[in-house]
Amino acid sequence: MLLKRIYTTEELIQRCKVNDRKAQELLYKQYASKMLGVCLRYATDKMEAEDMMQNGFIRVFQKISDYRGEGAFEGWVRRIMVHSSIEYYRKHHKMMQVVDITESGYDEGVSAIAPANLSARDLMNLIQQLSPGYRMVFNMYAIEGYSHKEIAETMGISEGASKSQLSRARTLLKQQIELLEKTTYGIER
């Protein structure tokens, strides 16, 4: 009877640093489903998310020697996936609608909190329907916890444009949630 060896994440990381293909495969299997979820939030569909994730894991294995063990490894991988998703969009979606806050009528008070009866799948579908710029900023700010300054630096836009994109994304999501509630659940606001 053959027993499979179980490796800790730290052991897999060390083995990946010396390009051990089996360790890379095991690390990929350990994190793929979570990272696909991250990429799905930035993608327009599952195929695009899978491409983003594959590019992200290539980057993870190329840069794994840079990981110093400070902070959670999963957080480090997640950050690479977010950056990989943004790079994918820069490469494949030339036009991102970016509007500066001074032109947008930015409203800090608009909130897009999903009601309890809205499923996670419905919310994911609504987020995926946002334009690329809105989707990127919404995900980075509302889900990943980036500041507007970090978003601006990462995406090459102004902080005002980041705030504007978030405001518009929230407004659109709120409208879509209300429409979905009305048509699916019969709820009127």
Overall radius of gyration = 19 Å
Low-confidence runs of at least 5 consecutive residues:
95-114
* Class derived from helix and strand content: mainly alpha
Enumerate how many helices there are, as a single number: 9
How far apart the termini lie comes to: 63 Å
| Basic shape | globular
Count of all domains: 2
Number of strands: 0
* SSE pattern: HHHHHHHHH
What would you give as the CATH superfamily of the largest domain?
A: Winged helix-like DNA-binding domain superfamily/Winged helix DNA-binding domain
Q: Approximately how much helix is present in the residues?
A: 55-70%
- For the record, the CATH class of the largest domain is Mainly Alpha
CATH fold category name of the largest domain: Arc Repressor Mutant, subunit A
Second rung of CATH, namely the architecture of the largest domain: Orthogonal Bundle
Outline the biggest β-sheet: none
Strand content: under 5%
What does the average pLDDT come to? 83
List the helices and strands and how they pair.
Elements lengths: L8 H8 L4 H22 L3 H18 L9 H20 L8 H4 L15 H10 L2 H12 L4 H8 L3 H27 L4
Helix pairs in contact: 1-2, 2-3, 2-4, 3-4, 7-9, 8-9
List its traits:
mainly alpha; Rna Polymerase Sigma Factor, Chain: A; Arc Repressor Mutant, subunit A; 68% helix; 0% strand; globular
In a nutshell, what does this entry contain?
With about 190 residues, the chain is mainly α. Helix content is about 70%, strand content about 0%.
